[in-house]
Protein: Cytidylate kinase
Organism: Modestobacter marinus
Amino acid sequence: GFRGQVTLDGPSGTGKSSVARDVAARLGAAYLDTGAMYRAATVAVLDAGVDLTDTDAVTRAVASADIQVGTAADAELVRVDGVDVAARIRGAEVTRTVSPVSAVPAVRRMLVDRQRALVAEADAVVVEGRDIGTVVLPAATLKVYLTAAPEARAQRRADQLGVTDPTKIAEIAADLRRRDEYDSSRADSPLRPAVDAVVVDSTGLDRDAVVERVLDLARTAV
Ligand code: C5P
């Protein structure tokens, strides 16, 4: 079977998570959702009630939290201090707050250390995020950067949320744009394709087609 590391980076709403899960299952590989780690860290920050602009306080809140994410059959598991936050991390409050928390360099250093330690335990792993190919695993076997047209990304997110009202879809599109701009323009580990990443545009492709494309790339990358 496949041995190595597949990184899947890109903006929100490209179908990255579902593709990463399917690819991991098909390769018999472990799976790590680093976005879930940043979202769990954000729960810890929100619960600590600290000022989001106080980067030292934000860092302390993350450092003192016990953050757990599943990497195998338990990939859905997300816990902060023993509490299941898998549903809460997908909510509006966390989604609104996660980018500023993720932009704090000391927070990134802590979580990147954890990510590398988790990856080191697996012979085969698929890791999704924003900076996996550029920063976390620069020597990965295969780096994929998944993109899609902004309208396709907003529509995908709307479908996930069951939203059909055009005004609401426009709001979703604006939220995605804001978060991607924040993630792309931060000083530490901005969202961008690694120089050796294969860019895959999922606009107009269904999930299975993207999964097959990544699997083909993984087979030839070994
Ligand atoms: O992938 P997801 O949308 O769950 O990521 C949530 C947020 O976490 C991103 O918008 C980004 O701010 C942050 N993130 C990051 N680096 C990663 C993964 C996620 O900064 N590797």
